[in-house]
Amino acid sequence: MSHHIVEVKNLNHTYPDGTVALRDVSFRIVHGESVAIIGANGAGKSTLLQHLNGYLAPTGGEVRIGDFPLTKATLPEIRRAVGMVFQDPDDQLFMPTVHDDVAFGPLNLGLPEQEVERRVREALDQVGAAHLADKPPYHLSGGEKKRVAIATVLSMSPTILVMDEPTSGLDPYARRRLMSLLRDFHHTKIFTSHDLDMVMDLCDRTIVLHQGEVRADGPTMEIFRDEDLLVGCRLEKPLSMQGCPLCGRVKSEVDGRR
Amino acid sequence: MSNIDKSFRDFRLLDRLAFGETAVHRLDPRAKVLVTLLYIVTVVSFGKYDLSALFPYFIFPAVMISVGGLPAGFVIRKVLLLAPFVLMIGIFNPVFDREVLVRLGPVGISGGWISCASIVVRTMLTLGAALILVGVTGFPAICGALERMGMPRVLAVQLLFLYRYIFVLTEEGARASRARELRAFGKGLGMKTFASLVGHLLLRTWQRAERIHMAMLARGFVGEFHARREFRFGARELLFLFGWSALFISLRFWNLSRMLGDALTGIVS
Questions:
Q1: Which of A2, A67, B68, B253 has a 20 to 30 A CA-CA distance from B127?
Q2: Is the Cβ–Cβ distance between A25 and A212 less than 8 Å?
Q3: What is the Cα–Cα distance from A140 to A59, expressed in whole angstroms?
């Protein structure tokens, strides 16, 4: 299905104050791919994400989602197809209860009431948050908020899932749970993250941004082995690829020898 | 712990109370809003020297607190917190109004003292009723009820957003104030730091509003809210509404305290 394709061609973005955030960014992500966008703070990751559902308009270049170029006329269709989960769930959960929040998207799509109910239930079940339905968002823990935020997007059945820093601010257990949840989605997935171990676990492909430019784009493992590239972009190898602090051996080597 | 922290926790507690499962909680919010409104109007409508007639009105908060399972101490504490401000309103009445209205043996009580006490009692009653309404209904449900009764939707949505983000804002404010306190070493550089602290909060709120708007757009928001709430105004609501209304109105016309007093003195003499 060509529905799930994200294509960015020579994308440029300059903020009104003159800051150049993106320079000639191009990539093509196809159906079912799981892609990480990594880079140091201020590399342009968030700016890039905000183009994918048309919140920011490019100052140059083009974004295509599925068969549509991103224009004013195609915005509603594109916003339905691209489910975007924000970094701070407090920005995303604005309705009085979790249920109302998950129903917000489907109601805006104009779906009939029964269909809305069904989708809300399914989305909450999928993230394991059915028991939270009647709670107000401000009484949830960080991990619960994050999962509910994902449900608010799933209820619109998007074909592409975009997440800004999915694991930030979560405790190790909540992080693991979220990761296994994300692994089960068969959408096209795009993440930005500083959690490079998560990237290694979930994403086959990685795009490295540095000062608004695509510095590298390829298989995740290849990119993480390229030490010069990582250092040049103010990044580091994921911890699980670094040597053991006690014996100096590397986990992937040990795994390989077995 | 700073005061902001503490009032924030109290606020959360009040919000949690609305999740109770008592008979009062289960009533349609509209019935509760109407009864509380009528209660406030009747209490406020009394004349300036009416004091004894107000006391029977304590029955409404008392019944609501006990049936609704609210912590009485908490409600009383919240109301008392405002008592000094209320006292300020009435404090000059005794100075200007010295005409003696009531004689208790040798002591003459002037009209000023009575009207001052009346103001305080009235505020306690109305404030208490409003707090109890929030405690047994929850703010979002009150907004929903007001909207169903004709309040413009834009206003209802604004109130809901205000309520939703007051939690986030107070948390941010509490964090900033804690950070200031920890580096203030008892000095704190006065009002100037507070001005910049509040300014920062405002800017951050602005940015957050932008992000929320973005999140709403991302989920297909086109300027219309589709609220989905069940309301059922049945026999229990009618009974609740008319029972209390009848009581409030009859207490408005017959002074129960005086009748009781007269009856008692009649028996004694």
A1: B253
A2: yes
A3: 39
Residue A168 phi/psi, 5-degree rounding, is -70, 140
CATH of A2-257, one of 3.50.50.60, 1.10.10.10, 3.40.50.300, 3.30.70.20: 3.40.50.300
Chain B residues touching residue A165 (CB < 8 angstroms): none
CB within 8 Å: B226 and A108: yes
pLDDT at A203: 93
Contacts A–B by Cβ distance under 8 A: 78
CB contact under 8 A, B228 and A105: no
Share of chain A above pLDDT 90, in %: 43
Residue A38 three-state SS: strand
Instruction: Say what the pTM is.
Output: 0.75
The CA-atom distances, in angstroms, between A72 and each of A8, B113, B129 are 17, 68, 50
Q: Check CB contact under 8 Å for B212 and A91.
A: yes
CA distance A220 to chain B (A): 29
φ and ψ of B148, to 5 deg = -65, -25
| Residue with the two structure tokens 């960015």 | A8
Q: What are the structure tokens assigned to B234, written together?
A: 């049945």
Spans of all domains in chain A: 2-257
Q: What is the pLDDT of residues B230-239, one digit of tens each?
A: 667 888 889 9
Q: Measure the CA dihedral A41/A46/A47/A50, to 10°.
A: 180
Query: Across the interface, do A105 and B226 touch by the CB < 8 Å criterion?
Result: no
Specify the pLDDT at position B2.
Answer: 56
Cβ separation B164–A95 shorter than 8 A:
yes
Residue of A nearest to B226 (CA): A107
A109-134 pLDDT tens trace: 888 889 999 999 999 998 889 999 98
- Does the CB of A88 have a partner CB in chain B at under 8 Å? yes
Q: Which residue in this structure is represented by tokens 């505020």? A: B123
- Buried b or exposed e, range B101-111, using 16+ CB within 10 angstroms: eeeeeeeeebb
Report ipTM (2 d.p.).
Answer: 0.76
